[in-house]
Each structure stands twice: as structure tokens, then as C-alpha cells.
Design goal:
mainly alpha, globular
Length: about 375
């Protein structure tokens, strides 16, 4: 494949690790809609992939040291197959390989344009060795299946476990929060009306990006479920094992002590991903059985979130408003739902369809 000639001819950095820093600076300086700036403190996987690549070149299987500037397509193909060494899974999935390829492609596009490499080894990679693109179509429930979920909820006033499962499902079905956000909730994240004592809002704390931080209004049914669950939560023995002493007792909302976890299990003061998956999968299957409908190809808490976001968009709520309600950085996070959207909504969403795989041309020198 014919490669473009370098735009500049600059001396390469002495330390290969600096290549990543210079690329990151360029990326953030020219970040535009759809290609966001990268927070190096939160998005550590980018740097980790580059470091793993340099380590691989320094100690590859042939025992040869292939400098990053002269690495070729063969080196890249073998790295993609081997993955990041030290991880439990020595055989990376296609999704992981695609991410390695995408990061290296963007960095080498930058480096080649600077004149630091004679060629971009990612461009020279044979098509058969390029990991296939990730499938981004999200599974959703039909409106009939979604409505049936409310009819199939575990009884709120049954056992303590049923009360917990009912309340977790109600939050997912009405707020569109992510499974991880639900699992991370603490008691102090609930906002109560001072006059009635009812739970009216829930606060989502930022876990990776500031856009995740939001205050969600709750409908009366969900608020009542939370209020009752708070009276049942103490029945789980795991809380007694993490009860704080006088010296480590939480003093404000920012103290995320395990004892303050909103949803807990008998064994641990948290709800595991497996437990949440079981609760949501069982609910979806019961709802589908109730209306004699086939379940979607995938089931779980993320499918419920996808459904809620799709419902909001098709009801006419603005794309940017839904983006904020969902805690997303920009509308690109909704692209995986486009197959389920009304034509007019899909058309408005199309402008966010900017692929990370499409590296922008390097046209400006970075200031020294």
C-alpha cells in the first residue's frame, strides 16, 4: 500500500516514551467534536498499550530488538496476537486487538507525519491481519417488553432480597443509569424531601469523567421503593462485618465507606456484576414470557439502559439532553442505538458519527 510522504522532517525524541506524550499533546490541542481530548489520569489504557508495544519490541520472541522507528507490519501483527503481557488472558479478544491497533495506528500516523518513521507499519499491515471493527449495535427491548418488566418485578414487600432486587430494577428502568453507577451508589447519594422524608433525587458521582456527575429526579414509585429498601438493608449480615469504628466512620457524602453502600448482598457489602446480571436477565425473560415475545439477542442491565435511552430519543427528547441525562461525554455514545431510532432522530445523530479509526491529517506543528 502506498503511504503518504511525511509532512515534516523533525528529529525524533530520544526517549520512545516521549512519542506518546507528544502525540497526546497534539491530540488534545486539536480535539474537536467527536474526537475528544484524552485525560491521561483517567484514560490510562492508551499509555499502557504504547508501553506494552515498546516492551514487546525490546524482548520479542526472536530475541531481536526492533526499534519503534523501524518496526514493520510483521512486528505489529505478532504484537496484536500476543496482547499485553502480564494480563490474565494471554490470547486477546478481537475487541482488545482492535483497541491495540487503533491506538498504535493513531500514534504512528502522527509519528510518520513528523518524519520520525520511514513508514507507518499499521498502514503496511495486511488486511487479513487488521482486527475487524467492533460491532456497535446495542440490543434493546421493545416497548411492550419494557412495560412488561414493570409487571414482572419481584415483590417490594417480600423478602429483603426481593425488596433489593425490585428497587435496583426500578432504578434501571426509570433512570437509565449504567450498571456500574447503580452498583456504586451509597446511602448518602439519596436526596430526601425535608418535609415529607420521601426520596426525590439520586446523585451520580463521577467515576471516570465529570459528565457522569449528575442529579437525577425520581418518580414517586421509585422513591417509595428506595424508602422501603432502606428499612430492609440492615438485614444483610455483610454490613455488620464492615461496620466502621469511631476512628473511621464516614463523616460526609464523599466518604465512600463500604458500610454506606446502598445495595448489598449477604456475603459482601456490595452487589456483584453477576448478581445484577441475574436479576435483570430473570426479569427480562419473565417479561418476554408474559407477552409471548422472543427475548433480544442479549439480556442484562445494559440492555435495560439501552432501552431507556432509545425510548427517550424516540419520544422527542433532544439528543444533547439525552446525552447529559445518560452521563455521556458527547452524542457519539448513542451511536450504537441508531438502528432502533426513528429516521428523523437517526438523521440528527448522524453528525456525531466520527470514527476514532479515522486519524486526522497532521497539518500543524506542535509548539516547542
Amino acid at each position: 500500500m502506498i503511504q503518504d510522504a511525511p509532512v515534516f522532517h523533525e528529529p525524533p525524541p530520544d526517549n520512545p516514551a516521549q512519542v506518546y506524550d507528544l502525540w497526546l499533546a497534539y491530540n488534545n490541542q486539536h480535539a474537536t467534536f467527536g474526537r475528544e481530548s484524552i485525560d491521561d489520569k483517567r484514560s490510562t489504557s492508551y499509555r499502557m498499550i504504547w508501553q506494552a508495544w515498546l516492551k514487546y519490541l525490546a524482548s520479542n520472541e526472536e530475541g531481536q530488538v526492533a526499534l519503534w522507528r523501524t518496526a514493520d507490519a510483521t512486528n505489529v501483527a505478532r504484537f496484536l496476537q500476543s496482547g499485553i503481557r502480564g494480563l490474565k488472558n494471554s490470547n486477546p479478544s478481537n475487541t482488545a486487538q482492535r483497541r491495540y491497533w487503533r491506538v498504535l495506528s493513531r500514534i504512528y500516523t502522527f509519528a510518520h507525519a513528523k518524519g520520525w518513521t520511514p513508514e507507518n507499519p499499521l498502514v503496511a499491515l495486511a488486511m487479513a491481519d487488521v482486527p475487524t471493527a467492533e460491532k456497535t449495535s446495542g440490543a434493546v427491548l421493545t416497548l411492550a417488553q419494557l412495560n412488561a418488566c414493570f409487571d414482572c418485578l419481584p415483590p417490594l414487600y417480600g423478602t429483603a432480597t426481593q425488596s433489593r432486587d425490585h428497587t435496583m430494577a426500578m432504578l434501571l428502568l426509570t433512570t437509565g443509569m449504567t450498571p456500574q453507577e447503580l452498583r456504586s451508589l451509597c446511602v448518602q447519594d439519596l436526596e430526601r424531601d425535608t418535609s415529607t422524608g420521601k426520596v426525590t433525587h439520586v446523585a451520580i458521582t463521577a467515576q471516570r469523567a465529570d459528565t457522569q456527575r449528575r442529579r437525577i429526579a425520581l418518580d414517586e414509585r421509585t422513591g417509595n421503593a428506595l424508602l422501603f429498601w432502606l428499612t430492609q438493608r440492615h438485614m444483610f449480615k455483610s454490613l455488620q462485618r464492615v461496620r466502621p469504628g469511631p476512628d473511621d466512620a464516614p463523616v460526609n457524602a464523599s466518604d465512600r465507606h463500604p458500610f454506606t453502600s446502598l445495595f448489598v448482598s449477604q456475603k459482601t457489602p456490595e452487589v456483584t456484576t453477576g448478581t445484577l446480571l441475574h436479576v435483570c436477565s430473570d426479569l427480562i425473560l419473565q417479561a418476554c414470557q408474559k407477552i409471548n415475545a422472543a427475548p433480544p439477542p442479549r439480556i442484562g442491565p445494559q440492555v435495560i439502559r439501552n432501552t431507556v435511552l432509545t425510548k427517550w430519543l424516540n419520544q422527542g427528547i433532544g439528543i444533547h439532553q439525552v446525552t447529559q441525562m445518560a452521563g455521556l461525554k458527547n452524542p457519539k455514545g448513542l451511536l450504537h442505538l441508531r438502528a432502533h431510532l426513528n429516521p428523523e432522530v437517526r438523521q440528527h445523530l448522524a453528525k456525531a458519527n466520527f470514527k476514532d479509526d479515522e486519524a486526522p491529517p497532521i497539518q500543524h506543528q506542535i509548539a516547542a
